[in-house]
Design a protein that fits this description.
This protein is α+β, with helices and mostly antiparallel strands. The chain has a single domain (16-190), classed as Hypothetical Protein Aq_1857, Chain: A (Sandwich). Helices cover 14% and strands 28% of the residues. The protein contains four helices and eleven strands; from the N terminus they run αββαββαββββαβββ. The strands form three sheets. The chain has a five-stranded mixed β-sheet. A four-stranded mixed β-sheet has the order 1-4-9-10. A two-stranded antiparallel ribbon has the order 2-3. A hairpin with an 8-residue loop joins strand 7 (132-135) and strand 8. The longest helix is centred in the middle third of the chain and has 14 residues, at 86-99. One of its GO terms (cellular component) is mitochondrion.
Amino acid sequence: MAHLVSTSRSLFCQRCSSLSSAPRRTLVRSIAPIRRSWSSTSSSSSSSSRSRSPLTHVNRPSPTTDFTPEDFEPVEEGNDTIDLTEQAIQQITRAQTRASNPHLALRVAVESGGCHGYQYKMQVTDQVQEDDYLFQPPSSTARLVIDSASLPLISGSTIDYATELIGSSFRVQGNPHASDKGGCGCGVSWELKE
């Protein structure tokens, strides 16, 4: 099931006060996912679709960008939140505008590899897979896609967009699941907490 955040209320990061001393990096939103129903019967009521468990069989082709807000159902709030900085939201929105594609999203995945075991893979996509979580901050078109295998490894992290002399890029910061020992010298890979 794909997932999207509810736009009915703003969710602000509870850790903002501790991170507000960082220069030019203010956390804007902490967002939680909402599930997408992948059944072939999309006319079911929203109350019955919220009580359904994830489907194990896909009745429609995947990947797809063909969805409406009615295709989504809320996921109970929990620890599966992602913090986005204003810079990250602005950059995702710019990419959507340049591509003239409101379904464009930043896909963040965790892969095994690197010298410490795990590394982040990021790409721009408009494809939503069955096991994806789709995050969208309230009152923004910016979208973030994370697959179900990666979400437990990066939930609670901050996605930022940093501009430096050598280049600009999206970054995952403050991952509570990453070891405090640090990652490799190049900053690409990281180790899972034991």
